[in-house]
Amino acid sequence: MVRTLTVLLLLFILFLISPTVPRGRQAIEETVPNHSKPLITLRNHGFEGTVTNVTERSITVAGSGICHPTVVEHTFPVSDALASGGYDPSSSAVRYYLRDVHVGDKVDVCFDRVDGVYVCNGVTIKRRPGGRVPPSRDPRESSHHKWANAHQDFEEKGIPLPATVDAPPEPPSSVIR
C-alpha cells in the first residue's frame, strides 16, 4: 500500500513539473474550440425537389437528397451571398439569384452544413413548369438554360431535342403524339 502511494505521489509530482502540460487559463483556451469562424462539416451537397416557398432568407423545397431517400419538405436558410441578392462563388450549383427562383420550380439546392445547420449556398433551376428556365447569372454557365428548356419542351410538348442536346432513351409516357 505504501509502495502504491509512493508511486502515485511520484507520478503527481512529475505531472506538476512537466513543461509540456498546459495549466490554468492556457489549458482551458486550448481545449475550448474557437467558434469565431463557422465550422463547415459538409460542403456542396445536393437536395432536389420542387420549391414550395421562397423568402429573402430561406428556401423551402419538397424533395429528396442524400440524407432523405423519401420525399420530405425542408427549409434551408440561405447564405449571406444569396440573401444579399448575389450568388455564392464557392457553390457548385449553376448560379442563379434567389430572386430568380419561383414557387413550383424544379430545383437542385446546393447546401453546406455550417455549425450543424444546413445552409443553401446555391440553387440550380432545372425546370419551370409552364414557363422557361431563365439564363444563369454566371456567363460561364451560358448553356444551362438552353439544355433545361430543350428537355422541358421535349417532356411537356414532345418537341424533338436539338442535335446539340443529349436525348433521353425514350420519350416519357405523358407526351401525347
Compile the SSE list and pairings.
Layout: H1 2-17, H2 24-31, E1 40-54, E2 58-65, E3 68-77, H3 80-83, E4 106-114, E5 117-127, H4 144-157
Antiparallel strand pairs: 1-2, 1-4, 2-3, 4-5
Order of helices and strands: HHEEEHEEH
Q: For this structure, what is the CATH class of the largest domain?
A: Mainly Beta
Which stretches are poorly predicted, pLDDT < 50 over at least 5 residues? 21-32, 167-177
CATH architecture of the largest domain: Beta Barrel
How would you describe what is shown here?
This protein has 177 residues and is α+β, with helices and mostly antiparallel strands. It has 2 domains: 2-31; 40-157, OB fold (Dihydrolipoamide Acetyltransferase, E2P), CATH 2.40.50.320. It is 24% helix and 30% strand. The chain contains 4 helices and 5 strands. It has helices spanning 2-17, 24-31, 80-83, 144-157; strands at 40-54, 58-65, 68-77, 106-114, 117-127. It has a 5-stranded antiparallel β-sheet with strand order 3-2-1-4-5. A hairpin with a 3-residue loop joins strand 1 (40-54) and strand 2 (58-65). The protein is elongated and about 95 Å long. The model is unreliable at 21-32 and 167-177 (pLDDT under 50).
